[in-house]
Specification:
The chain has helices at 15-48, 79-87, 108-120, 137-146, 167-171, 196-218, 234-239, 250-260, 281-308, 313-324, 327-348, 355-389, 393-402, 404-416, 450-471, 478-503, and strands at 66-72, 96-102, 126-130, 153-156, 180-187, 230-233, 264-273. With 504 residues, it is α/β, with parallel strands linked by helices. The chain has a 7-stranded mixed beta sheet with strand order 3-2-1-4-6-5-7, sandwiched between helices. Helix 3 (108-120) links the parallel strand 2 and strand 3 (126-130). The N and C termini lie far apart (49 Å).
Length: 504
Amino acid sequence: MRLFHPALPVGVEGPLIGKICLWTYFVLLGILCLYGFHRYLMVFLYYRYRRRVPVPKERWKDLPPVTVQLPVFNELYVVERLIDATCRLDYPKDKLEIQVLDDSTDETQDVCRRKVEEWRLRGVDVRYLHRADRTGYKAGALDHGMRSAKGRFLAIFDADFLPNADFLQRTVHFFTDETIGCIQTRWGHINRDYSSLTVLQSIFLDGHFMMEHCARNRSGRFFNFSGTAGIWRREAIDTAGGWQHDTLTEDLDLSFRSQLRRWKFLFLPDVETPAELPVDMNGFKSQQHRWVKGSMQTSKKLLWDVLKADIPLFVKLEAAVHLTGNLCYFLMFVLTLLIFPVTYYRMRLKMEGSVWLDLGVFALATISVCVFYICSQCEVYGLRGALRSVLYVPMMLALGIGMCVSNTIAVLGGLFSRTGGEFVRTPKYAISDARDTFRGKKYRVDLKRAVPFIELVLGLWFVFVIGYSVCYGMYGAIPFQSLFLVGFLYVAFLSFYQGRLASR
């Protein structure tokens, strides 16, 4: 029964406007479907080249000198455990140098100095380098450290990582192949089961590393150093132009520049490096904003170089999808704004049957996400872990949609910014299990109420949209619309609630 039929402003009810909305909507769905099919490609490539496991060309008879770089900025809660873990690396002391690259402005400086001195007294070559000027942020700190680094190879760990003692022994021998420029290891998760948010993040990251990195690397396509838990050949950094800070993703930028200069990269999924996941929504948003904005800056900077490079077409196409993938957040936001006008005009243009297209896209997106992430969970945790992850698939879809407001701002900022911008690092609180808390700790991300308010309004708006679909019998669109409802309300609620917790 049709309980209501809201009237639109005069001049907006015409069929031309309705057709424009509908065709724009369908075009956006088509583009998003193409990016969805890319997940199938990654799964296919992963299993096709699954047995192409890299092995060292040979083993070093005399291990080469290695410098471990630890870029930190105001990391009071985690910096001690980071220094402890790297100083315990199983590597000859006369071949290992550790640099604590500290840009901190708080008491982290004193903690670092004290811990560095403690390990120096134990005979470890660990050095404290402090910059009062944060020019270049992380890229600037790494470049500053390189000027005095002794190592031929440079291992990098962010403050929230805990490398295992055998990290160097399991990676450095691959550099006996003189064409290898960089090695990336798989990220582990110290606090995976802390909350539903950390579980969702872990599944996202496992898919990215296990499926995408493996598929790209083993099929001969470009993939990227992920900023930490990896080791570089110094020559590969120098010949590619060094660390540059005109983007917020200096790791992605340098990775593509190096591979364009014929350096080979390796991904080692069997070498896991544990790390701490962001535990609050605002910290997660801050991290995602930086990654999305930086990737768009890198796309603007390097996409043309990739397309005109003398490399195989399949490598170019994959690199283009890789660099532009975050445009999906912008497309999703536009789609969000179009859903109700499309729902309304379907009735005016007697196209109610087209709601089954929504249902088809919903099914296609769900299946592609299921296949992609469940396969990655199966590879990392086995069949039991994969089955447990099935329950999180709908929430993963909803979370991705709920993040589209914040990440659309990042996309536009990356496309239209002239400089890299401020590197806002993600707060870490040394949280490993449910007994730990971030309440009242330093480094909280300031809650910008405009974004979560927009998310809340959109979530409530979809209550009306779903009600409208129910009243007019367009049931095929409801599962698709429900993802928007849940995603926006979930992200908005955690943004407000956890922001209040952190400030207490």
